[in-house]
Design brief:
The protein has 497 residues and is of the alpha/beta class. The protein is built from 17 helices and 18 strands.
């Protein structure tokens, strides 16, 4: 427990997120500290104050325990009036966070905060912004260490990834977009899931109706994009689990997409065949026949006990059979997702998963660190599960890196989420030449992503203005079916009107 007093600013959200990275989950923002200091308290009191005079900012942080000052930090910096490029608000927040970080890191282990003061989802953006300004790689690494307090491992990770991404992100072409299509049905709902997902057995009678509305949105949105001269670079069908659809329904969906959008510059088409209990030879042949070149078969774990615990209705053997079938049919790229930190799993269980995956030898491996999302069943029943803690989660992430290297894979994209174990990250690894363009574009936000279907969120990018606008579709299945015309109009308002 920590109580916090802020003076001269009100960046509660940013300060709260930073403090949480030290493993402090109970944070109490209070307005005055005098009465608090007169009490005998075992919890900490942190006071952060900003005083500004003539563009000079003095930032002071103090931390007390049992009425005693145990550490403090003072920073002073000046904004140069002629420097028009500096975002003053952003720089002020950064310096406030540095002052607080430097105090807390003396009390708590720095090894528990490898990302320093960064709490955002896309840390690679900082590297891209600096590279765009022709800052040298050596200087960028120094900035990440001195101005953001990243450790050496994370500095190497995001600089390596940013350099890999740039050949796909640049030059920015405003005539290219990516398409995301949501199929919000699953065999069962996993305990950690926060995505739009409807049990297929209870919603079979709605699938055709959903597809009818989806096809209408595809046609209407494609017309908008075609009128604007937009071509599609990558397509990603996700969910949910797209392979809950029948082979015939999958074929109709893919043909609908290919016949409506301008695909003259299409470089990649991905379909998530994530759940092996939905994969059949007929469905995979349908995908292959329609020139789908990339699929995902996502075990999450190769331990049967855990699969049952997290709500999956398949076995490790089912995963291996589905993968073997995909190889036999001949897809160019197969991705496999795993999650570290699942309930009751440790190094032994993860090693078993990675040994299986190493033998299968996919082209992509996406490693997710468990994030306990508010809308997941895991969040509702958190006390029922034994979750890996911070050090173990970090050891597990390191183990996945070691196995990726053995499989001759390197990191090509990454992102972070709230409520993630150990304040860590999700990393996509790939063999040379098997980077997923869609994953890179959605993370770096340099290209518009047009999302279709229930729960999809379009991200319209305006690179010249350094601006991004989100256009959400409704999540509820029935609402989407009934309001699909509105989903098209929402995109029209942003893209044209």
């Amino acid at each position: 427990m920590i109580s916090v007093v802020l003076k001269g600013h009100d960046y509660k959200y940013e300060i709260g997120e930073l403090i949480k990275t030290f493993g402090i989950l109970k944070i109490n923002f209070i307005s005055e500290c005098e009465n608090y200091l007169n009490k005998t308290e075992d919890s900490l009191l942190l006071i952060n104050e900003v005083v500004e005079s003539n563009d000079v900012f003095i930032i002071k942080t103090q931390i007390f325990k049992n009425n005693n000052l145990i550490d403090s930090n003072k920073r002073e910096y000046k904004f140069e009036k002629e420097d028009k490029q500096i975002d003053r608000r952003k720089e002020l927040k950064r310096n406030i966070k540095l002052s607080i970080y430097d105090v807390l890191s003396k009390i708590y282990s720095k090894s528990s905060t490898p990302w320093g003061i960064l709490t955002g989802i896309r840390p690679t953006k900082i590297v891209h912004e600096l590279l765009d300004k022709n800052v040298s790689l050596i200087e960028i690494k120094n900035i990440l260490k001195q101005k953001y307090r990243l450790n050496d491992e994370k500095i190497k990770l995001i600089t390596d990834i940013a350099i890999c991404e740039r050949k796909y992100v640049y030059p920015i072409r405003e005539d290219l977009v990516s398409i995301y299509i949501s199929i919000p049905f699953c065999p069962t709902r996993c305990i950690y899931c926060s995505f739009p997902s409807n049990p297929i057995d209870k919603n079979k009678n709605k699938v055709e109706e959903y597809l009818k509305s989806l096809f209408k949105e595809i046609k209407g949105t494609a017309k908008l994009l075609n009128d604007l001269g937009k071509k599609v670079e990558s397509i990603y069908i996700g969910g949910g689990t797209p392979t809950t659809l029948s082979a015939n329904q999958l074929s109709k969906l893919i043909l609908n997409v290919l016949e409506n959008f301008d695909i003259t510059e299409l470089k990649e088409f991905t379909v998530e065949a994530g759940r092996p209990d939905t994969i059949t030879r007929e469905k995979l042949l349908t995908l292959k026949k329609n020139n789908i070149d990339r699929i995902s078969i996502n075990p999450q774990t190769m331990n049967d006990k855990t699969l049952k615990l997290i709500g999956r209705s398949h076995s490790t053997e089912d995963i291996k059979k589905a993968y073997t079938l995909a190889r036999e049919i001949g897809f160019r790229t197969v991705n496999m997702d795993i999650i570290i930190g699942l309930p009751d799993e440790g190094i032994l269980e993860l090693t078993n998963t990675l040994e299986h995956i190493q033998r299968m030898n996919p082209e992509n491996l996406t490693v997710h660190t468990l994030a306990v999302k508010r809308s997941s069943r895991l969040r509702e029943n958190i006390e029922d599960y034994n979750l890996s803690r911070e050090k173990l989660a970090n050891d597990m992430l390191n183990l996945t890196r070691n196995y990726s290297e053995k499989m001759q894979m390197y990191p090509y994209y990454m992102y972070r989420q709230k409520y993630m174990l150990g304040n860590l990250e999700n990393i996509g690894y790939c063999k040379n030449g098997h980077e997923c363009i869609y994953n890179i574009q959605i993370m770096e936000e340099k290209q518009s992503i047009i999302a279709l279907g229930a729960g999809g969120i379009s991200k319209i990018v305006y690179p010249k203005e350094n601006r991004l606008e989100r256009v959400p579709n409704v999540k509820n299945l029935d609402e989407y079916i009934n309001r699909v015309d509105e989903m098209i109009d929402r995109k029209k308002m942003q893209l044209i009107d």
